């Protein structure tokens, strides 16, 4: 959550109108995952968002798994370009393993009208990555990278 808020701050300072699907962890949304995710898509669609960026921490059964990956919905060339821009900046800023840009049918990628990506910024199942993700220094580094990737995609930053 802190990373998403920081990304929003950076984008806002660069003239981007940012709308959050949530600004804190406790929300009065349905506990049903599909309904919860649809609420997020509805917020995006209601404001006619151009872009939908989901920021997640990944998890795996094996604690040694690590790295970054960013997803887009198959067939979305704009989604692919945005995902590539964000992934490139994250890898460059953090030095973490590049697990690649991938296609996936995640709910928020296919059920919003906006160009959508979902970035997995590390594995909370990996103790080293979980520790780093909880430090303000790295949260700022991740936020700067994600925002820079978005701004570069938009042609607003070199």
Largest sheet: 4 strands, mixed
Total strands: the figure is: 4
The secondary-structure element order is: HHEEHEHEHH
| Overall structural domain count | 1
Number of helices: 6
Approximately how much helix is present in the residues? 40-55%
Distance between the termini: 27 Å
Average the pLDDT over all residues and give the rounded result: 92
Low-confidence stretches: none
CATH fold label: Aminopeptidase
The CATH architecture would be: 3-Layer(aba) Sandwich
Question: How large is the radius of gyration?
Answer: 15 Å
SS strand fraction: 15-25%
Q: What would you call the shape?
A: globular
Structural class, by secondary structure, is: alpha/beta
Oligomeric form: single chain
CATH superfamily: Zn-dependent exopeptidases
Please describe what this structure looks like:
This protein is α/β, with parallel strands linked by helices and 158 residues long. It has a single domain, classed as Aminopeptidase (3-Layer(aba) Sandwich). It contains 6 helices and 4 strands, in the order ααββαβαβαα. The protein has a 4-stranded mixed beta sheet. α3 runs antiparallel to α6. The longest helix is centred in the middle third of the chain and has 18 residues. It starts with a helix and ends in a 5-residue tail after the last helix. The model has no long low-confidence stretch (mean pLDDT 92).
């Amino acid at each position: 959550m802190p990373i998403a808020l920081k990304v929003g701050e950076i984008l806002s300072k660069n003239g981007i109108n940012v709308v959050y699907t949530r600004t804190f962890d406790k929300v009065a949304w349905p506990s049903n995952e599909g309904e919860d995710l649809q609420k997020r898509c509805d917020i995006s669609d209601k404001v006619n968002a151009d872009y939908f960026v989901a920021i997640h921490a990944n998890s795996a059964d094996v604690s040694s798994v690590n790295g970054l990956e960013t997803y887009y919905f198959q067939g979305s060339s704009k989604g692919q370009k945005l995902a590539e821009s964000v992934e490139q900046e994250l890898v460059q800023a953090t030095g973490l393993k590049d697990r690649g840009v991938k296609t996936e049918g995640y709910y928020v990628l296919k059920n919003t009208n906006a160009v959508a990506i979902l970035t997995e910024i590390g594995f909370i199942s990996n103790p080293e990555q979980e520790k780093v993700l909880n430090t303000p220094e790295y949260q700022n580094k991740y936020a700067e990278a994600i925002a820079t990737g978005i701004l570069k995609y938009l042609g607003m930053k070199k």
